[in-house]
Amino acid sequence: MSQSSSAPSAGPPHAASSTMLSPSATARRVLGLPDPVHSSMARVAVDRTLERVGGPVGLASAAAPTVAFVVTDIVAGLTLAFFALAIAAVAACVVRVARRESPAAAIAGLVVAAICATVAALAGEARAFFLPTMILPVLFVVAYSVSLIARRPLMGLIVNPLSGGPRAWRTHQGLQRLYIGSTIVGMILAAANLTARIVYYVADEPGALAIVQVTATSAFALHFAITLVLARQVAGPLVATSRPPATSRG
C-alpha cells in the first residue's frame, strides 16, 4: 500500500508565515495607517509636483537673475549689476526653452527682470529691484483671506483639479479640512514673506531681500507639493467609492 495517501500534505514552508503580519504591520492596521509603499508613492508625487514648478533646475534658473544682480552689486556696484542681471536673465530663458518649458513662462521671466531692473535704475538703488515683486505676497494674503471668508479655500480651488478629487470636494469633510488648513498655512507663509520683505527693504539689505525671495519661491513649491500629495491620499478612497460597481456579463 502506498504511503503517499496517508501522509499529510504540506504546503511550502513559507505559506503559513506569509499570512502573518509583522508587529509593525499589525500596528499600522490597528491604527489605520497606510503601508510603507505609500511613502514611496508620496515621494514620487512630490517629485512630480516639483517638476510642475520647474524642479531644482527650474527653481535655480528662476533665482539666477536675482542672485547675479545682488552679488554683482555688492562686489562691483549697481551699474555692472544690471549687466550681470541681463546675462543671467537671458541664460535662464535659454535654459527654460531648452527644457521645453512654456515659452510664455520663459518670456515672463525676462519681462519681470526688465521691470525690476527699470525700477532699480530709476530709483538708483539696488533694494528697489525688489519693489515690483513685493506685490505678490500682498496679493496672496488677500486671496487667501477672501477665499477663507467665502468658505472656498484657495488651495482647494488650485489643487483639487490636479489631485483628481471629486468636484463636490466642499461637501467632503476630510478634503475641506485639508484645504482650509493648507490655505491657512499658505496665508501665514505669504504674510511672513511680506513682513520679511518690508523689514529688509527698510533696512536697505538687498542680500537679505534676495534670500527671502528665493526662499519664498521654494517654500511655495514645497507647500503646493505637500498639499497635492495629501489631497491625493484623501481623495483616493472618495473617488473609488463613488465609482459604480462593475457589472458581470453573463
Mean pLDDT: 82
Compute the CA-based radius of gyration: 26 Å
Elements, N to C (H/E): HHHHHHHHHH
Q: Pick out the low-confidence regions.
A: 1-9, 13-19
What's the multimeric state?
A: single chain
The structural domain count equals 1
Estimate the global geometry from the Cα principal axes: globular
Q: How large is the count of helical segments?
A: 10
Strand count:
0
Percent helix among the residues?
over 70%
Share of residues in strands:
under 5%
Largest sheet: none
Supply the helix-strand structural class.
mainly alpha
Terminal-residue CA separation: 47 Å
Structure description:
With 250 residues, this protein is mainly alpha-helical. Helix content is 74%, strand content 0%. It has helices at 15-18, 23-31, 37-52, 55-76, 78-98, 103-123, 135-149, 154-163, 173-202, 206-242. The longest helix is centred in the C-terminal third of the chain and has 37 residues, at 206-242. Residues 1-9 and 13-19 have low confidence and may be disordered.
Which properties best describe this structure?
mainly alpha; 250 residues; 0% strand
